[in-house]
């Protein structure tokens, strides 16, 4: 991909990620609430505690569903990560003359003739 287009796509993805930063933080907070609710639900032994922690997990799940725009922001961050990796990728040059294994194979073929 051309560096110009990578730059354009990176700028657009960065703007989308920054504009969805609030929902991303809210989604992360909702995930923490769900984790806490499920964790303590599994550890509790009384019925009342299980109902309470199940309620906490359900509130976290409802909060997570309301943060659907955060998925677009997370995808934009993934695009930024992909562009970063592609930007720093080195070109692979396959030089037949300087490859020691190819030279060895060629010389071995000559010796076996």
TrEMBL record:
It comes from the Bacteria. The lineage of its organism: Bacteria, Bacillati, Bacillota, Bacilli, Bacillales. This is ABC transporter permease. It comes from Planococcus halotolerans. The chain crosses the membrane at residues 7-36, 51-84. Keywords: Membrane, Transmembrane, Transmembrane helix.
